[in-house]
Structures are given as structure tokens and as C-alpha cells.
TrEMBL record:
This is MFS transporter. The chain crosses the membrane at residues 12-35, 47-66, 78-96, 102-123, 135-160, 166-184, 218-236, 248-269, 281-298, 318-341, 353-378, 384-403, 467-484, 504-521, 533-553, 559-581, 602-627, 647-666, 687-708, 720-740, 752-773, 779-805, 834-855, 867-887. Keywords: Membrane, Nitrate assimilation, Transmembrane, Transmembrane helix, Transport. The keyword Protein biosynthesis does not apply. Residues 11-411 form the Major facilitator superfamily (MFS) profile domain. Belongs to the major facilitator superfamily. Nitrate/nitrite porter (TC 2.A.1.8) family. The lineage of its organism: Bacteria, Pseudomonadati, Pseudomonadota, Alphaproteobacteria, Hyphomicrobiales. PANTHER family: HIGH-AFFINITY NITRATE TRANSPORTER 2.3. The keyword Plastid does not apply.
Length: 909
């Protein structure tokens, strides 16, 4: 049944578009006044990026809630209240004087940005599906408010000051709110609901569609087409001022030249989506954006070519005219893409436009918050103004690939048999089909680890072989992941002149990239198979290992190259998620805890190995002429040779041996195959998120303390040469993890986890105590012992939390799949357990960045690390309380299982 076209739909659309234009003008106000505020307060690029992005954060996060409220209470009331609240915050901005006050005021200004979710849900109810694309495209053209701010705000700012700009824009919001209220009416669904007395659905039911992976794919598209548009709208004025030397008025006018087409042509994008299909419009959007961002990303470069007739020199740099044309093209296609994304929502989710549109809008809006900060960070780190377009090139390329893969998967599902009959190349169509030879490739088609007879006679031997081949591969992965913790300290000795902040980023980036990669790696084993994926990921370690070996030999190596190598070291961190997911498939639940503890614990030894082996390897020319010449560095006994390149090269032969061993010795399990969509069900499991929290408390602490312990010790006890003992902490944590898995198998993972958090609380309390008396004799020994206790407790907790996951999912399958047989539940539990194991490890790995960063922030704000440690203590208390409340207390999920009589089957299939 078609949605009727109501008589006042045009009037409603006009009023809503005008209101959204004013809201968007207020939402991007910092793109102009922020430049003057930065000059007055002397802000860095990163601080400026945070300031202009903060309103975008508020407006984005509010979109889901505002969309739901619009579905429940009507767009007229919510839109009006939204504008009035934003007006109050914008007016109060004019009274802010310090940077913290500016940030607080910016949070309030961001309320204006939430209006988009309100307008989408409100406007879509006045038009039939075949016209919703055009209608929402016209409404979305209110993005032109960014151009309004860039046109008018510079003149008001120069004449009266930035405070007047805030006050005038606040007044405009109030006037618009009154006009909107007087010229609109409640939408037909709200009117009918009130007439019939039907109560609106609960907010939880409104959120039900958000579990669909498709929505998150739409959100990534919108992260680029809208989030990048907002980010560029905020970033372009200062880009033009600094790169092309323009004044603020001219820069604002040119930035508006980008914003106007990126807004007005959104209406045309809606028309194209209605006429030719949103998918086709998105393909063109992403393809053109890939080309445009690549061109814009190219930095000014001088080339010297040595030809047979002499040297040829030339310079490549984009002119201002070329830049304007390229940015105009990018903005035009972004506008088309924004309309195409929102064409999908009322068609696929007509009853949840508010919540779905709010989520997609929220993720897109977060792009407007995250990307300016990222632009500032990249500029600070690389010194390249074009680095912002490099980031956008990577983002849009990823969106294009995901969209194409999803569409191809859909097409293969629809015509799979017909496609399978086609030859690999068109030229082979009339040729006889080749006779295929079946090759198993080490795949196990019959795998029943819970069958006791099968396990004893066949399964254990195969599982143990895969485990002991997985362990060295994982150890090498951890070694490559943490190699920068050693290399960074030696860079100044061999001639690199980086600042302390630059060295910190080199040490921290592997933690960020490794943790991020784990999110994706955790789903790869069921898709590609454990044998193939382990082999590929082990070979991938050669890239950073060899790259570091060559890069550190030349002090003139650009900093950006070292940054890329640091990010590539995250390949080692990502391997943990896939390795644990793979091994979890091989063992029965009664032995999973010990197997995962051995794999992870001995793999974690890579942290200690790199801190122990690399300092020895760089002092000897173990590779001869092949390894390169040493650098001569000054020491207590005079100059001595240092082969810093060996920090990377020393692992190369071991990586090659391990990769060959995994390929020829490991197995795939046929029943463990699953697509990403099948595994994505874990995002609906509340225990997935609970275990993310608990494993962050255990492994996140282990890896974070490993990264921050040497620096913290050196800062607190400068007179003690404790760095030579730094490897002992990670060593204790790794050994306790590998040696305590049997405890969780015997007594229950939740019970062991509970007591591990008790020990961690005691450990942090002891560290705080000894920091308080650090000037007294024996304080260092107490401090060091307290940290060893922390490392020991994290290792025990690492093993026990992972043992909990398969037991939890086995218990939950009875509730989630009551009609399925035992074998079906077992297989589903194993697939979900593997995915949760990998995903929790991904989330927890961010501890490698956040714990050292917390130390730095605490020291910067308070002069010491105490505040950070108190924060860790409070976090561990929350972990302890959650473990008790959800799992170990009487009535908890695992209480009866873990207290079953010894010898009974404590892990029912």
C-alpha cells in the first residue's frame, strides 16, 4: 500500500529544510569562529581539531535518541525543542573564556546537529516510498547551512567579534523555532495514534533492527559521504589559509564553494536514487571519490630523474585552481551519496526510520568529530597538510570494497549454481571442462572432540599438533607487535632526531593498529580456515620485520615511513584474535581452558622475548655483510658498534620456518566454516560485551602494563637501573597464564577470575602505597614486587576469562536454541565462542595504548601517576562486582556448573 501524499507535504518539507539549514549553520559555527579562538588561546592543531569536532560529537550521539523520540512523540514537538535547547547553549558560548569552558559550550552547541535525525523521521512520513528519496534529498540540502556560516560569519566576526556571531546565530535559532512551530503540524501517524489511543512502541523495540549488519554497512557509507563532508567543511578554511596563504574571508568563501554543491545537489542525488537506484549512485560516488581523494592526497614533490642525456628535474604540486575543481567534484559526489544512503532507510525499515536513520546519522556525524581530530593528529605526526586526504582515500576505498563484496555475495547467493558452471575466463566457454582433482588441504571433515572415544584415539594427537605449531607463530607475532618498545629507545643513539612526543607515537601506534586489526581477525578463521589464515598472517610479519631492518639503518628515513612500519607491527597484535579462535575449535570444553592458556600464555612470552633478545642481538653482527653496517654509538667505555637493524632481521628466519610449519602441519576444520554474517550474531549476545569488559581488566592490563612499566619505573625511580629487569613482569604474566589454565578447568573460570581481580586490586593498592613512600629505603623493591603480583594476577585472569567463554555459550545455547539437537547446539556454541574469544581480545588489546596514555595524562594533569592507578583500581572493583553478580553468586549463570561434583560432566553439550 502506498503512503498517501498529504496536501501540506510541500509546506512541511519547506519548513523542515529551512529549520535544518539554520541548525546546520549553528552546528558548524566553529569552522569560522574557531580560527579566532585558536589565535586568542594559542591552541595546537590537535586542540583546534578537538574544539571544532566537539559539537559534531554531541549532535551525532544525540541522533539515535532524537530519532526514537520523533517516532514516539512526533517531529514537530521534538524539532522545536531541539532548536530552543541549541539556542540557549549557543548564546552561552559567547560568555566562555577558557579552553575547558569552550569545550563545555561546544557540547551544547552540538545539540543543533541532532536535528537531522528528527527531520528524516518527520519528513519521510509525509511522502510515499517512490518520492521519499527526492524529499529526503531536498531536506538534506539543509547542509548548505555550513556555507551560510562560511559566507556570513567572517564578516560579522571581523566587524563585531566572534561573541557576536554566537549571539546572532542563537537568535536565528529562536526565530526559526517559532516559525517552524507556527507553520507545521503533527505528522499523520502521530495524529492517528492519538486518535486511536495506541501507545507508541517501547524504545527497546525501536532499537531491534540495529542488530542487522546491513545497517552498520550503511553507517560506514554515511561516515564518508556525510562525516567527511562535515570534517572538510570544518577543516578547509584553515587548510586554505595555511597551504595557499589566503585570508580568512577568501578561505571562507572558497570553503563555502565546497559546501554549497555538497548540500544543494543532495536533492538531485535523491532524484537520481529514485530514478536509477541508490546502488548505482553509490558506486559512482565511491569510484569518483577514490580518484579525487588520491589526487588531493598527493603532497608537493620534487622529482629528479637521471636519464642518459642528463638529469631531469620537475616539481608536482596542485595549484589553487586545481584544488578548487577537485574539491568541487568531491563535494558534488558526496552530495549524491548522502541522498543515496538515506534512500535505503525508509524503504528497508519503514517502521523504524527514526532509530535506523538516527544510528546511520550518528555514525556519519561521528565522522565529523573523529576526522578533524585525525586530521590534526596526522598533520602533527607527518607534517603533511595533504595527509587528511590520504586518510579519506583509505576510508572511501574500504567503503567501496565492502559494498562491492556485499553485493557480489548477494548476487552469488541468488544465482550461485549458474555462476559455478561458468569457466574462469570467457575464452574457455566452449572448451571441455577440466577434470578436477580433489585435494583436502589438511581439512578435517570429521571432528568430534566431545566424543570421548574419538578424542582419545584420534582427536587429541591432531589438536596437540595444531596447538604446538600455533604457539611459536603467536610468540613471534607478539614479538613483532612489541618490538618498537625496544627500538624507540635506541633511535636517538643511531642519529634519529625525533621529539619525545614523536617517539611516544611510534611506541603507541602498534597497540592501536593491533587492537583494531583484532576486531577483523577474530572473524577470519571460520571464513578462510585456520591453516590458511595462520600461514598468511605469519608470513605478514615479514613486512614490518624486514622494513624495520632497512629503515633504521638510515637516520634520514622520513618519520612517516617509521609511522607506517609502527602501524604494520600491529599485524602481530591482530594475529592473537585469529590464533585463539582457531585453537578453540580443536579442543573439548573440558580442556579448552588449558589449551587456550598454553597458546596465549606461551604466545605472550613474545613480549619478554623481544625485551630480552633484541638488546643482545643488536650488539653483534650476526648477519655479517648481509645485515648491513653498524652505527657507532657512544657508551661508558667509548664508542661501540650497534646493529639496530637486527631488531627486525633477527626474527626473519624464525618467521619463515614457522610459516612453512603451519602450512604443512596444521589443519582446517570443515564444520568450523562460517560467514561474517553468521558470526555477527555475537553482537546480540550480552555475554559478549560482559566478557569484553572482564577481559579488558585482565589482558588489557597485562599488555598495557607491559608497554608502560619500563617508562613508569624509570620516571619514579631514576636512580635505580631497573630497565634491565623490565622483561620479568611480562614473563611472570605469560608463565602464570600458561601454567594456570588447569585451575579454571578444575574449579571454574568464573571463580578463578573472581580471585584474580581480588589479587589485582591488592596489587594496585600496593603499588599506590609504595609510590607514596618512594623516597624511603626499600620502596623500589616493594613497588617492583607489587607489579610482579599484578602481572601474575593478570596472567591467571587471562586464562580463566577465556575458559569462561565456551562454558557460557554452551549453557546459553539451551536457552537460545531450545528446539535444536545437541550436536547443532554444540557446533553453534563453538562458532560463537570462537568469534567472542577473538572479539574480546580485540577490545582488550586497546589497553596497550590506553594504560601508558593514562599514565601520561595523569602525570600531565596532577604531576604523578596516582590518578591513573586509582582509576584502574575502581575499574577492577567493577570487574569483581560484575563477575560475582552475573556468574559466581548463587543463582549466577555459572554457579551450579562450577560447583558440580568433581568427575561429573560439568560441560553439558
Amino acid at each position: 500500500m502506498k503512503t498517501p501524499v498529504y496536501p501540506k507535504s510541500g509546506q512541511i518539507l519547506g519548513a523542515s529544510t529551512a529549520a535544518f539549514t539554520v541548525c546546520f549553520a549553528v552546528w558548524t559555527i566553529f569552522s569560522i569562529i574557531g580560527i579566532r579562538i585558536r589565535q586568542e588561546l594559542g591552541l595546537s592543531e590537535t586542540q583546534f581539531g578537538l574544539l571544532v569536532g566537539t559539537p559534531i560529537l554531541t549532535g551525532s550521539l544525540l541522533r539515535v535518541a532524537l530519532g526514537i523520540w520523533t517516532d514516539r512523540y512526533g517531529g514537530r514537538m521534538v524539532f522545536t525543542a531541539n532548536m530552543l535547547a541549541a539556542a540557549v547553549a549557543t548564546f552561552l558560548l559567547s560568555y566562555a573564556h577558557t579552553y575547558p569552558q569552550m569545550l563545555v559550550a561546544a557540547l551544547g552547541v552540538g545539540i543543533a546537529g541532532g536535528s537531522f535525525a528528527v527531520g528524516v523521521a518527520y519528513v519521510s512520513r509525509w511522502f510515499p516510498p517512490e518520492r521519499q528519496g527526492t524529499a529526503l534529498g531536498i531536506f538534506g540540502a539543509g547542509n548548505v547551512g555550513a556555507a551560510v556560516t562560511k559566507f556570513l560569519a567572517p564578516f560579522v566576526l571581523v566587524a563585531f567579534g566572534w561573541q557576536t556571531v554566537a549571539q546572532v546565530w542563537a537568535a536565528a535559532l529562536v526565530v526559526m523555532a517559532v516559525i517552524f512551530w507556527l507553520t507545521t503540524q503533527d505528522d499523520p501517524i502521530i495524529v492517528e495514534r492519538r486518535r486511536s489511543g495506541i501507545k507508541p512502541k517501547s524504545a527497546w523495540l525501536e532499537l531491534e533492527p540495529l542488530k542487522n549488519v546491513q545497517i552498520w554497512r550503511f553507517a560506514l557509507y554515511y561516515f564518508f559521504v556525510f562525516g567527511a563532508f562535515v570534517a572538510l567543511a570544518l577543516w578547509l578554511p584553515q587548510y586554505l589559509i595555511n597551504v595557499y596563504g589566503l585570508d580568512i574571508k577568501t578561505a571562507g568563501m572558497i570553503a563555502a564553494f565546497f559546501s554549497v554543491p555538497a548540500s544543494l545537489f543532495r536533492a538531485y542525488g535523491g532524484h537520481l536514487s529514485d530514478s536509477f537506484g541508490a546502488r548505482r549512485v553509490l558506486y559512482w560516488t565511491f569510484l569518483v571519490s577514490v580518484v579525487a581523494t588520491f589526487i588531493l592526497a598527493y603532497p608537493p614533490t620534487d622529482y629528479v630523474v637521471h636519464g642518459i642525456n642528463g638529469t631531469i628535474s620537475f616539481h608536482l604540486e596542485m595549484s589553487l585552481v586545481g584544488f578548487i575543481i577537485a574539491i568541487f567534484v568531491l563535494g558534488f559526489f558526496m552530495a549524491l551519496g548522502k541522498a543515496a544512503v538515506y534512500k535505503h532507510i525508509p524503504v528497508y525499515y519503514p517502521d523504524h526510520v527514526g532509530s535506523v536513520g538516527g544510528l546511520v546519522g550518528m555514525i556519519g556525524g561521528l565522522g565529523g568529530f573523529v576526522l578533524p581530530i585525525l586530521f590534526g593528529l596526522l598533520l602533527d605526526l607527518t607534517g603533511l597538510w595533504t595527509s587528511c586526504f590520504m586518510a579519506l582515500f583509505v576510508l572511501v576505498s574500504g567503503a567501496l570494497l565492502w559494498m562491492h563484496m556485499a553485493i557480489r555475495q548477494m548476487e552469488r547467493g541468488a544465482v550461485g549454481e549458474a555462476l559455478a558452471k561458468l569457466p574462469p575466463f570467457p575464452e574457455m566457454q566452449d572448451m571441455p571442462a577440466p577434470v578436477a582433482k580433489t585435494r583436502t588441504g589438511g581439512a578435517l571433515t570429521d571432528w568430534r572432540p566431545e566424543d570421548r572415544t574419538f578424542w582419545v584415539e584420534t582427536g587429541r594427537r591432531i589438536a596437540q599438533r595444531n596447538l604446538w605449531l600455533s604457539i611459536p607463530a603467536l610468540l613471534l607475532s607478539f614479538a613483532i607487535w612489541q618490538v618498537w618498545s625496544v627500538v624507540v629507545a635506541k633511535l636517538p643513539l643511531v642519529g634519529f632526531t625525533f621529539t619525545t612526543d614523536q617517539l611516544f607515537w611510534l611506541a603507541a601506534l602498534p597497540g592501536i593498529s593491533g587492537a583494531t586489526l583484532r576486531i577483523f581477525y577474530s572473524f577470519m578463521v571460520p571464513i578462510f580456515g585456520g591453516r590458511l589464515w595462520t600461514t598468511l598472517t605469519t608470513w605478514s610479519l615479514l613486512i614490518p620485520a624486514v622494513g624495520i631492518g632497512y629503515a633504521v639503518q638510515n637516520p634520514d628515513t622520513p618519520y612517516v615511513v617509521l609511522l607506517m612500519l609502527a602501524l604494520l607491527c600491529g599485524l602481530g597484535g591482530g594475529n592473537f584474535a585469529s590464533s585463539m579462535a582457531n585453537i578453540s575449535f580443536f579442543f573439548p570444553k573440558a580442556e579448552k581452558g588449558n589449551a587456550l592458556a598454553l597458546n596465549a600464555g606461551l604466545g605472550n612470552l613474545g613480549v619478554s622475548v623481544v625485551q630480552f633478545v633484541v638488546p643482545l642481538a643488536i650488539t653483534a653482527g650476526i648477519f655479517g655483510w648481509f645485515g648491513g653496517d653498524p652505527a657507532m654509538v657512544k657508551g661508558p667505555a667509548g664508542e661501540a658498534p650497534l646493529w639496530l637493524q637486527n631488531a627486525g632481521f633477527v626474527f626473519v628466519p624464525f618467521i619463515a620456518v614457522s610459516a612453512f610449519a603451519t602450512w604443512f602441519g596444521m589443519n582446517d576444520i570443515a564444520s568450523a566454516k562460517a560467514s561474517f554474517t553468521e558470526q555477527a550474531v555475537i553482537f546480540q549476545r550480552r555475554h559478549n560485551w560482559i566478557m569484553c569488559w572482564l577481559y579488558t581488566g585482565t589482558f588489557g592490563s597485562f599488555i598495557g602494563y607491559s608497554a608502560g612499566f619500563p617508562l613508569l619505573t624509570k620516571m619514579l625511580f631514576p636512580d635505580v637501573n631497573a630497565l634491565q629487569f623490565a622483561f620479568l613482569g611480562p614473563l611472570v604474566g605469560a608463565l602464570s597464564r600458561s601454567g594456570s589454565g588447569w585451575l579454571a578447568d578444575k574449579y571454574g573460570g568464573a571463580r578463578v577470575t573472581f580471585w584474580a581481580f581480588v589479587l589485582m586490586i591488592a596489587g594496585v593498592a600496593s603499588v599506590l602505597w609504595f609510590i607514596g613512600i618512594k623516597d624511603q629505603p626499600g620502596a623500589f623493591l616493594g613497588f617492583f614486587a607489587a607489579f610482579l603480583l599484578l602481572f601474575f594476577a593478570t596472567g591467571v585472569g587471562n586464562a580463566s576469562t577465556f575458559q569462561m567463554i565456551p562454558v557460557i555459550m554452551a549453557k546459553e545455547m539451551g536457552r537460545l536454541m531450545p528446539a535444536a539437537d545437541a550436536e547443532t547446539r554444540r557446533k553453534q556454541a563453538e562458532k560463537e565462542s570462537a568469534a567472542i574469544t577473538g572479539f574480546t581480545s580485540a577490545i582488550a588489546a586497546f589497553g596497550a595504548f590506553f594504560i601508558p596514555k593514562s599514565y601520561g595524562t595523569s602525570i600531565a594533569l596532577t604531576g604523578g601517576p596516582d590518578a591513573a592507578l586509582w582509576g584502574f583500581l575502581i575499574f577492577y572493583v567493577s570487574c569483581l562486582a560484575i563477575t560475582w553478580a552475573v556468574y559466581t553468586r548463587k543463582g549466577g549463570l555459572l554457579h551450579d556448573i562450577e560447583r558440580a561434583k568433581r568427575g561429573a560432566s560439568v560441560h553439558p553439550a
